[in-house]
Amino acid sequence: MKTILEIISAKMMTAFAECGYEERFGTVVVSNRPDLCQFQCNGAMAAAKQYKKKPIDIANEVCAKIKDDSFFSLTDAVMPGFLNLSLSDQALASFVADMGADEKLGFEPQNKKKTAVIDYGGANVAKPLHVGHLRPAIIGEAVKRILRFDGYKAIGDAHLGDWGLPIGLIITEMKARHPELPYFDPDYEGEYPEECPVSISDLEEIYPFASARSKEDEDYRNRAREAVVDLQSGRRGYIALWKQIMDISKVDLKKNYDSLNVDFDLWNGESDADPLIAPMIEDLQKKGITRLSDGALVVDVKEESDNKEMPPCILRKSDGAAGYPTTDIATIIQRERDFDPDKIIYVVDKRQGLHFEQVFRTVRKAGIVKPETELIFLGNGTINDKFGHPFKTRDGGVMRLEYLIGDVADKVLEKMSDRDMDREEAYRISRIVGLAAVKYGDLSNQATKDYNFDLDRFTSFEGNTGPYILYTMVRIRSILEKCRVSVDDAVSTAIFENRDIASICRNREISASERELLLGLTDFAQSVRHASDELAPHKLCSFIYDISNRFNSFYHDNKIISEENEELKKAWIVLISLTYRALDCIMELLAVTVPEKM
Q1: Which CATH number does the domain housing residue 71 bear?
Q2: Per the structure, how many domains does the chain have?
Q3: What is the DSSP string of 292-333?
Q4: pLDDT above 90 for 28
């Protein structure tokens, strides 16, 4: 199904062509003066230069071609050469009716034969998720869902940090505390214990202790690095301990990601690419693109066009260990082998931009991916407190993610204290709304920008917030239930089988707020298209906030439930059903759960 802009542009292009001008000048955009018109065409301004005519003369010629088209209620040429356009109510209602009859609300997937791998976890094993893990998790999940909606085979990979210094620190500290364990005896040949000698709570204490000590004790830090080399070299005891740590860490991480409504198709880690590293390095050496630098093996990736420093990409450190660039390059080889993706997207902290630029250039230089394969760094900004300072706990540490979400949910519960529901139900709903507040508060910001986390603003039931969107949806749901329409029907095409917005709207006056709601809904497909093409979930947030505002204006202007005109009431029920369906679809793409009541 064509978007409303495509339909209007096609009409305008035909009109330009019939007047003897190139049809490309007929492109239409949403009006930047909604008080004057709904859409505008600025093509006459550009055509005037090519055809040596006054813009207003061209605009008047084109306007004359379309003035009798019943699709429009307004066709106006205004100085110095703009074409102002508004749709007739019947055209508007007919388009929205076609949307309602379509499974994807008029959105046409354009990438049904393409594959995308999204790397958006990046959590380190043996460490709890903290506030820094929030953005890549929820942005990546939304991007994955949006791409799937657009036809991609989209594969989400957690890509765990399980093969670097954090593991070396844990092994070193465990050895210091429990040297008697068989994992640390290089001559031990028996079977290792079936269960991990430490719990996840033990690990959550061990890692920060070891990390802090390594910053003050150089010998300790060097031993941790040696442990990494030994692990990567296949030391039997370290491998056994590492596997057990991985098992309990994955269980804990999956539980935490599940609580965020974030789901990965792959739980691969850096270690999964390790077998590919040696042949990869050998291949790059044969291609003559490596060199030694102070004992380290590197690839020069600086280009003549660079206007800033671009250090070489380190494949192998001077101590023989593989670094993050090495495993990331090997992981791309693995993904190429397993999925032959059209694009690989990395949703990670934007401060890693230099690292990924080095990796991408090395991969291109080595011919590891096809020239047309897209390697995309979707760097996310950081979360700050409401004053713009780094988000910390009261004692200055990094806040655990579960604590942050708990604080938000508690704030929501406080604001719901006047609701008529029992404490247990209020608590359950506050967890749903609290998570929505966190996710929407994040996703409504452009991914690359930093933002300030304001607890009071994010949990407000007014304004551009998650609770406001949810409350709007719950309000629609309540109206439908009182009108004896099931929500299942509202979110399907079933309600359009016997009722059609276009026919119901024929021969009656449409109010301004109803017209605005219809017009807002026409932007659904365009918003999803922008979100997919630009990997921009915030575009969807803008859409549902706009629709929520339009619906609430419509709701306040009209008494839907008590309306006595049955035909009019039917039209409104169909309209708000479609509104709920559009909002529900977007919330699903954003991985936000909607409660049945609030």
Answers
A1: 3.30.1360.70
A2: 2
A3: EETTEEEE----TT--S--PPEEEE-TTS-B-HHHHHHHHHH
A4: yes
Asked if the structure places residue 121 within a domain, the reply is no
Residue 176: count of CB within 10 angstroms of its CB: 14
Partners of residue 82 on adjacent β-strands: 78
175 is a domain residue: yes
Give 31: exposed, middle or buried? Use CB within 10 Å, 0-12, 13-18, 19+.
middle
Look at residue 355 and tell me if it is in a domain: no
Structure-block tokens of residue 367: 């011919």
Residue range(s) defining the domain that contains residue 51:
4-87
- Tell whether 376 is covered by a domain: no
Last residue of a domain, one of 87, 118, 133: 87
**Mean pLDDT across the chain, nearest whole number?**
94
- The residues, any chain, with a CB within 8 Å of residue 418's CB and separated by 6 or more, are none
CA-CA distance, 439 to 261, in Å (whole number)?
A: 10
pLDDT score of 498: 61
Task: Indicate the pTM of the whole model.
Answer: 0.94
Answer yes or no: is pLDDT of 487 > 80: yes
**pLDDT in the model for residue 1:** 92
List Cβ<8 Å contacts ≥24 apart for 487-493.
487/580, 489/577, 490/577, 490/580, 490/581, 491/580, 491/581, 491/584, 491/585, 492/581, 493/100, 493/101, 493/102, 493/103
Angle at 58 between CA 53 and CA 60, to 5 degrees: 140
Whether 121 shows a pLDDT value over 70: the answer reads yes
- In the block, tokens 């890692």 appear at 207
Q: Which of 65, 87, 109 is the last residue of a domain?
A: 87
